[in-house]
Amino acid sequence: MQTIQLETPGKFRVIEESVPQKGHGEALVGIRSIGVCGTDIHAFHGRQPFFEYPRILGHELGIEILEIDENDLGLKIGDKCSVEPYLNNPATPASRLGKSNCCEELEVLGVHIDGGMRPLLSLPIHKLHKANDLNFDQLALIETICIGAHGIERSQLTPDETILIFGSGPIGLGAIQSAQSVGARVIVADINQDRLDFCRYTIKVAHTLKADEADFEDQLRSLCNGDLPQVVLDATGNRQSMQRTFSLTAHGGRIVFLGLLMGEITFDDPNFHRRELSVLASRNATPDTFKSVINAVSSGSIYTKPWVTHHMELLEVPEKFEETIKQPGLIKAVIHVG
User: Fold this and answer.
1) pTM > 0.90
2) Contacts for 84-92 with beta carbons within 8 Å, 24 or more apart?
3) Thinking of the domain 148-281, which architecture would CATH place it in?
4) Does residue 137 surpass a pLDDT of 90?
5) pLDDT one-digit tens code per residue, 230-242
6) According to the model, what pLDDT value does residue 329 have?
7) I need a labelling partner for 250 at 20 to 30 A (CA). Which of 130, 156, 227, 286 fits?
8) Superfamily the domain 2-130+307-336 falls into
């Protein structure tokens, strides 16, 4: 079968692979849609940490089950599923605590091991989340939304609180729509006006701010009746943005770092202590998050239709990937297989 491999930064190639064999506890699945993630873009540009070349990318997957043994999850041939791409060791301390998303031995499809940019793949049955009422493009979005949703779970956001979210790319959008579904007051900040317009006019965020305005804090306080938000979530992975959260969070509030920075951040300790802030990391998502996000997308409380703005066929990736990720107005690109 023809598979797309990222050979070196900036260079995809088509390779031939044998059809995979289904192992014990696995299902043979047909890959139908693949979301293009920021991780894939960073890998293409040679900026992805914990990464080795060559690598078959693809971890945001909408799949169809082609072969499966009898199982206690009720999965059968023909079912459509989203894939939880975090392959964990259930014996590790984190996994035993129910934190398979941050397992000490975690391997993520398309990052640490080869992923889904190919027609067929054999996957553990318990990593498949059935959602026959969703289309394959929606299924390919579930993992992205889950990352944002897990950040909101970590924040313990309540309906009577205000949250400021820095960054409105796909991961930020997952957090934004999850915060909206909680019923909290959401303020979105970004330096990209097109993304802010998307948030305001397409997913109906009432309050958006340009993050690079000189009077940003004054504008923020004005929206919060002179106060600051109880929760600030950073989905940018930008050092400056992450560090400024410490001065923009209300006393007694929570900071959630959803974006990843390869390096160190610093903060003023007296300010940190005076405010008694809580700082939380958020990594990947749990199986329960996948279930709750699928339910939210199915019910329409998280609306995904506007997300997918660009499309490619699998065998077009070597030629069109770089051009596509540079397109103005890109929110999410999806690769179709077959």
Assistant:
1) yes
2) 84/127, 84/128, 84/129, 84/143, 84/285, 84/287, 84/290, 85/59, 85/60, 85/61, 85/109, 85/110, 85/115, 85/116, 85/127, 85/143, 86/127, 86/284, 86/285, 87/113, 87/124, 87/127
3) 3-Layer(aba) Sandwich (3.40)
4) yes
5) 999 999 999 999 9
6) 87
7) 286
8) Medium-chain alcohol dehydrogenases, catalytic domain (3.90.180.10)
